[in-house]
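Before relying on records like the one below, remember that each one covers exactly one chain. Contacts with other chains, cofactors or solvent are not represented anywhere in the record.
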Amino acid sequence: MATAEATLRPMDPPAVTVADIRMAHERIAPSVVRTPTLYSKTLSDLTGANVWLKFENLQFTAAYKERGALNKLLQLTEEERARGVIAASAGNHAQGLAYNGRRLGIPTTIVMPRPTPTVKVQQTEGHGAEVIQIGERFDDAQIAAYDIAAERGLTFVHPFDDPAIIAGQGTVAIEMLEDVPAIDTLAIPIGGGGLISGCTIAARAIRPDIDVVGVQAELYPSMYAEMNGLSLPTEGDTLAEGIAVKVPGKLTREIIRAQVKDIVLVTERDLEKALALLLQIEKTVVEGAGAAGLAALLAHPQRFRGRNVGLVLTGGNIDTRLLANVLLRDLARSGRLARLRIVLQDRPGALYSVAKIFQEQNANILELYHQRIFTNLPAKGLTLDVECETRDADHLDRLVAGLAAEGYDVSRIELA
């Protein structure tokens, strides 16, 4: 967990103004969902801050990216509309552009890397876009998208480094501060920087003293490194793939350098915990990037304590299997789900004796795994792995103590 403060400096001339953002808001308002900004008492009690949530996961494509994409499309000339647009994206930008392109009758082409999950390809095609899969990495897809744009005369729509995109994303902050003027702090995820750039410009025009904090995953600290003159690795399998950007935008970099004082980093465990809490407490599904703001409050409580904090739940597009894994891992870390390894003698009744202790401790056995062969125990010994369900960490401690009291060699198989 890391945090750093940057030195703010003026930027001239401003590429995006609050007037641009207000015009964008008027332009897109009839077609995007004005998502609610709601107070969370439970998360406020948990974090020590007053927490408001902006539910951008309730947009039609389940992400805020619709705002910038629509604002860009609505400003194209008739000739540009007729020729069509193209983007390189494997995520929410692709769907936001494809959905609005179909609504407006604008041909849309999306270039994705070949390893893009089939579900994302199908969802984008389902919105009427032509999907072209090229290369193994996003960089390969983006280079190809520029080449195809030049070849076909298409307008390239960048996911974040475009004034129209930034202005569209800034409408999120306009709505938040109209709905809750008391918000004095925004915690905004940073990938390429489009959302935080637009939101910061809008928020500072409405409330000049507002505190804007950027949030990045520790595995992809590209903007954090840029702002602090550091060289840090940007790679790995992050839960927050929506903000896993290796190279931040040139325009967004300048806006953030001029406007955003503080960027914090969050770990994968922070992101997992935040995602699970949002589902359990708010009953809302978010993707990893959508949980980044709450992850920052959990990882850096002193930075936000006592503040009126606005968090943007940026999107809800998460694979269901991944979501299930995150929730099960959260249960394990909280002590409600556990795997215990117990050494037994291989004789009749051994399993019954162990099961009786689980019954006495009122712990539920979910799965059993015997291991007789691949073990360094004597030939008459075995290990028994028991997956079990308990009420909480204290209940699990009592179960382990009960097994040990009966003479069993028991150990917990912990998560990393």
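The chain has 17 helices and 15 strands.
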